[in-house]
């Protein structure tokens, strides 16, 4: 224990969701057998975990590189993929190791059914996010994606709309969007497609955050879920710090005898939060 005598507790409900665990387990199994494996995009939005797996032989490639691969194994991460990816794999004799999250796959199928039924689809999600690209792909990229209701102000929409959400969006914000669209007079079919493992953390984190003097939130900066959960913590405990690794910690953030809670995103590995805990306890 360091001179500051910091009392540090990790939120045991934080860390990888089952979709990320599934993808990483599949990757590690093949890496142990073959020594290398291609992965389409970062396997998880956490640089430290990606580097750990790269050291085991994981090779991250972009979509533009997929068309040049032949006769290889390629992992599809939990975020899922658009139909084009499967077509390219078939043409190039690529074996896809499909680790798409079951929650995401179910959502893709629902959106595809709505599209086939000629419904006008809106997707509440982050522009350019891997999951959202896969969802849009189910509609030949015809679905309208927006991450803020203000984006729809100058858009001419039909009277009948079908609304879906990226699985990791804030439930409160989704229902706010739903209410605003209904108040504007649209005939709305709203589908709550937010992952409950994510949304339940929205509910549990406030209680955790208020138990401590300060909160250290550990997440990759690319993680949409991390941004949402960080804001939940900060709302209930203004002394919340966002870091991506223990190296970003600074003694000046803390006072002697502080109680500190460590929380993380669904893409934050428990080993990384443990590193942060050990670093804090050394102060």
Count of discrete alpha- or pi-helical segments spanning 4 or more residues: 10
Strand composition percent = 15-25%
Quote the average pLDDT.
94
Reported for the largest beta sheet, the result is: 4 strands, parallel
**Total DSSP E strands:** 12
Q: Given the helix and strand composition, which structural class is it?
A: alpha/beta
Low-confidence stretches: none
Helicity level, as a percent range? 25-40%
Distance between the termini: 7 Å
Based on CA inertia axes, which overall geometry fits? flat
How would you write the strand order of the largest sheet?
Answer: 1-12-10-11
Q: What's the order of the H and E elements?
A: EHEHEHEHEHEHEEHEHEHEEH
Rg: 21 Å
Give a written overview of the molecule.
β6 (121-124), α6 (130-137) and β7 form a beta-alpha-beta unit. The strands form three sheets. A four-stranded parallel sheet has the order 1-12-10-11, sandwiched between helices. Strands 3-2-4-5 form a four-stranded parallel sheet, sandwiched between helices. The N and C termini lie close together (7 Å). The protein has helices at residues 18-34, 47-54, 63-66, 83-91, 102-116, 130-137, 171-183, 196-209, 224-236, 270-281; strands at residues 7-10, 37-40, 58-61, 73-76, 95-98, 121-124, 144-146, 160-165, 187-190, 214-218, 240-243, 259-264. α8 packs parallel to α9. The protein is of the alpha/beta class.
């Amino acid at each position: 224990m360091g001179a500051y005598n910091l009392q540090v507790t990790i939120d045991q409900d934080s860390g990888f969701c089952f979709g990320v665990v599934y993808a990483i387990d599949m990757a590690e199994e093949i890496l142990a057998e073959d020594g290398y494996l291609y992965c389409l995009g970062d396997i998880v939005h956490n640089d430290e975990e990606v580097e750990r797996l790269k050291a085991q032989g994981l090779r991250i490639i972009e979509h533009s590189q997929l068309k040049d691969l032949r006769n290889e194994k390629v992992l599809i991460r939990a975020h899922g993929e658009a139909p084009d990816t499967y077509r390219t794999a078939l043409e190039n004799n690529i074996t896809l190791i499909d680790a798409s999250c079951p929650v995401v796959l179910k959502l893709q199928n629902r959106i595809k059914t709505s599209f086939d039924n000629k419904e006008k689809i809106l997707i509440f999600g982050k522009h350019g996010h891997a999951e959202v690209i896969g969802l849009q792909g189910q509609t030949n990229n015809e679905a309208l994606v927006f991450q803020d209701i203000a984006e729809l102000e100058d858009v001419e929409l039909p009277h009948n709309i079908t609304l879906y959400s990226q699985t990791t969006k804030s439930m409160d914000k989704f229902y706010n969007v739903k209410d605003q669209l209904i108040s504007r007079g649209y005939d709305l079919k709203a589908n709550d497609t937010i992952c409950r493992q994510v949304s339940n953390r929205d509910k549990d984190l406030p209680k955790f955050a208020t138990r401590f003097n300060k909160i250290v939130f550990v997440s990759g900066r690319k993680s949409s879920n991390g941004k949402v959960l960080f804001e939940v913590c900060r709302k209930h405990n203004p002394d919340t710090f966002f870091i991506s690794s223990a190296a970003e910690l600074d003694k000046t953030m803390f006072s002697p005898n502080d109680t500190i809670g460590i929380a993380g995103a669904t893409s934050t590995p428990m080993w990384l939060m443990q590193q942060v805990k050990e670093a804090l306890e050394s102060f």
